[in-house]
Amino acid sequence: MQRDLDKKIWFFTVAIMAVGLVALYSATYDNVRVTQKIFYDQLLCAGLGIGIMYVLGKVDYRRFYDIAYGFYILNVILLLLVLIMGRHALGATRWIQFGGISFQPSELAKLALILALGRYFSNLKPMLSFGFRSKVQSVFYHFLWPLGMTVFMMLLIFKQPDLGTSLLLLGMFVVMVFVSGIDYKIIGAFLGLGVVLSPFAWLILKDYQKDRLLVFLNPNIDPLGAGYTIIQSKIAIGSGQLFGKGWLAGTQNQLNFLPERHTDFIFSVIGEEWGLVGTIFMLILYFALIMTSMQVASQVKDRFGTIVTVGIVSIFSLQVVINIGMVMGMFPIVGLTLPFVSYGRSSFLVFAVMMGFLLNLSKKRTVF
Amino acid sequence: MRLKIIRIIVVLAFVLIALDLVYVQAIKGKYYFELSTNNRIRVVPLEGKRGRIYDRNGTVLAENRVAYNVTITPQAIEDQDELFAFLSESLGVSRDLLTRRYRRKKHTPFAPVVVAEDIEREKAIVIEENRFRFPSLLVEEGYKRVYPNGENSAHILGYVGKVNQALMQRYKKYGYSPLSDVGKSGVEEFYDLNLRGEAGGYQIEVNSRGQQVRLLSIREPTRGGDIMLTIDSRIQAAVMDVMEDTPGAVIVMDSANGEVLGLASFPDFDPNALVDPKRSKEAGGLFSDPLAPLINRAVSARFPPGSVFKIPVAICALDTGKITQKTTFHCPGYHQVGGIRFGCTYPHGDQNLIEAIAHSCNVYFYRLGLLLGADLLHEYADKFGLGRKTHIDLPYERSGRIPNRTQGILSRRRPWYTGDTLNFVIGQGDVLTTPLQLVRMMATVSRDGVEVAPHVIKAIGGVPLTKYDYTRDVKIPKEIFEKTKLGLRATVTDYTGTAHELDNDELFVAGKTGTAQSSPHKEHHAWFVGYAQGREKSVAFCVFLEHGGSSHNAVRLARELMLRLNREGLI
Q: How far is residue B239's CA from residue B265's CA, in Å, rounded to a whole number?
């Protein structure tokens, strides 16, 4: 049993934040379109985030259990508010404003769903399968009901539209339900059904989402439109070669060839300016943080703690992998941020809350 | 257990990403690095100044004058409405037109767009004075081709124009840009690579919107080479005076070395009309004129040579020993073959070779044709390069045609008749030559069988051109030429010679007339092709009048021209 998991979490998280800030500084350096204000904004977020982590590390994490359902309902209301009166940006409505501060409820929704599912799964009794009736019942309680909780939130987010986040929630659900101890057969049947139904998903996608998927398959079909981002991002990363072009010296970055480089495509900036050395270093930091979190999950003696930790790890890992895969052209562009590195207050602070939760658990894992 | 599976999945995902990073950054890194360089570096071309063209005495025939062009740099525009309003007012051009021109030509934000070409100096000054108000505006000094002597030498010089879109692909590999001036005909085209300056340019770094971020380097364009022609613009001027503006061609060539001293085609044109956008209507007229003034009739058009063709026939007959100088035939005014009469100008009576040439007696040559046959005629015409290109350094030269029995049979799908030979022998029927071929042949005859290479360039960039300094021996004995030349001289000196009008005490002239039938409803072509001995030079020359009627018309002009050239000491 390791005693210094919390220290490791602190170290890796702050290291990732620091690297992210250095990269963001370059992405916003001496530029009119992406101003340095963004960098200071993020710096403030980092300060706030560290504060949140510190505070959450102190409080009793059972409080999370208590507020889980209420938080879920509050979030559903917020998501509805977004659809009704949200702020419109970049072809989607994702923000709402409270007294001059705008934030994205879809980011908060990740946390709300993790907590709600964590509480739900931790209360479930192990599955007993005697007879057909109880089998149906257990499928309902162990699978369909929590799926409903997830899909309800997914739909609200999908309407914004934010395909990336809603699919992310689905992925997270799969991991959590898997860890909750469900029968493999149900997971298998569910995945099989998903594969069969996926062609129909095409029908409900927006045009730009279809474009992105097509462009993902072949970026050259539209090199100046939808494919532009992928092509420029790959050029940026590849041109960094082994050691990069140097900080503030990435031409793709500094000359504005990289769109969205302060948010979704920040990893391209790292790749271009710091090369393979930088990207692998970044990858190692994320990997270390994820593995540490997994250790927390396996050492926590409490079911709610384990499941919530797994939820956090899954959403964190999925975002890291999907974001990097996306800027490398391995995944379609779905608009997911790179945790603690991409600019975005809501995303940054929500991840800080999650890390705070992990810190809390890593300290209290022996307390029952 | 289930946590372990998740751990394995995470490890796999990270390994996959790491491998892809190694592939993209380490293995394909160089490729992407080059792509990123191409992304940010642009080259803006600067045109080199075109070389000048002089005549043999150093008179400038083509040069560049400074032209003021108004350009707008798109990325520097502040208030587009105000800018175009100002330009429209100061240039006196409608705003609509300016806007349309700007939209059409604009392609990158950093490259200046020319909205008005070659404006007056006064307007240029007004615009320059207002530059502080419009930072995007610039009056740029460009060069415009100008031909100070206008029509003089127009067909030799040619003109310049922009590379058209269709040819751009072909020109691109030689470094032409869509903005380049390229020679469109004449020397401007043939020696374009020598005349055009080497384009320079500046390299700039641009951002993703193509806006200039900084200047990386400049390479100054270099000036093209100057060209000196063998042409004497004073001879050209004399030719212009002598010829009225009826279709035709005049060539005066130095028979010692093939230097073309004068070469003109009519109707002529002013090359300035083709380079000046303000005269575009006039230029359009040149292209649509049914008389085709842009065609250089001296080298790019082919005509039946008529009786001029009798020269190689006479040489052939002597060289093959079928006749001697004294062989006599009787001319009753026609020659009958089968049921058809082949006519002569009038009954000449008994004629020997000299008389037959001087009188241009068809019947005598019909008899020669029957003796020689079409194959020999073809062989000797070929010896003098008739029906073949002379490879003069002008574009679009045509080869003409000398009939040949096999070809004639195949193309007409009927046997070769004696009548075909009779037409052949007097330079009719299918015989087609360019005026230049006949001049070269005449030079060869005058030099007793030494053929020179006609050319119009003396030096490029101050270096004399030696490429055309070769001669070819046609391998026919000297005395045969001497006998033939007796006939050519008699054409002028004999009282009954067809070119007796040319007889004079000032300079030696000899030659052969030709009146060639063309289409049934048009006048004949009038030829005089000859050689003359001036005070300094011996020249071969030709005066050709397309549908000019009797050869006397050509002879009259030839006399006027030769006497003038001699009096002015030009030859």
A: 10
* Rounded-to-integer distance, Cα B485 and Cα B133, Å: 78
Cβ atoms of A310 and A122 within 8 Å: the answer is no
Q: What is the largest CA-CA distance in chain A?
A: 69
Say how far apart CA A26 and CA A36 lie, in whole Å: 9
Which residue in the set A252, A257, A275 is minimally distant from B25, CB to CB?
A: A275
Of B7, B22, B207, the CB nearest to A276: B22
Determine, for residues B17 and A328 on separate chains, whether the beta-carbon distance falls below 8 Å: yes
* C-beta atoms surrounding B571 within 10 Å: 23
Judge if the upstream peptide bond of residue B267 is cis by omega within 30 degrees of 0.
yes
Question: Residues in chain A whose beta carbon is closer than 8 A to a beta carbon of chain B?
Answer: 175, 178-179, 181, 232, 234-242, 251-252, 255-257, 271-272, 275-276, 279-280, 283, 286-287, 290-291, 294, 297-298, 310, 313-314, 317, 321, 324-325, 328, 330
Shortest Cα distance from A232 to chain B (angstroms)?
8
Q: Under an 8 A CB cutoff, do A241 and B18 touch?
A: no
**Complex ipTM value:** 0.92
CA A190, CA A181: separation in Å to the nearest integer? 15
Residues of chain B with confidence (pLDDT) below 50? none
Q: Which of B3, B20, B207 sits opposite A294 (nearest CB)?
A: B3
State how far residue B36 is from chain A, nearest Cα, in angstroms.
6
Rounded CA separation A296/A291 (Å): 9
CB pairs under 8 A between A and B: 114
Structural domains of chain B sorted by starting position, each given as residue range(s) with its CATH number in brackets: 67-145 (3.30.1390.30)
Collect all residues of chain B within an 8 Å Cβ-Cβ radius of residue A178: 2, 5-6
**Cβ pair B321, B359 in contact under 8 A:** no
SS3 B411: helix
Q: Do B26 and A252 touch (CB under 8 A)?
A: no
| A259-303 pLDDT tens trace | 788 888 999 999 999 999 999 999 999 999 999 999 998 888 888
Q: Model confidence over B305-364: pLDDT tens digits?
A: 999 999 999 999 999 999 998 899 999 999 988 888 888 988 999 999 999 999 999 999
H-assigned helices in B463-517: 478-493
Q: Could you give the CA distance from residue B91 to residue B477 in angstroms, rounded to a whole number?
A: 71
Collect all residues of chain B within an 8 Å Cβ-Cβ radius of residue A282.
none
First-last CA distance in chain B? 110
CA distance A109 to A115: 10
As a whole number of angstroms, the distance between CA A28 and CA A41 comes to: 12
pTM: 0.62
* In chain A, domain spans: 5-364
Annotate B366-378 with b (16+ C-beta within 10 A) or e (fewer). Answer: bbbbebbbbebbb
pLDDT of res. A118: 92
Residues of A in contact with B207 (CB under 8 A): 255-257
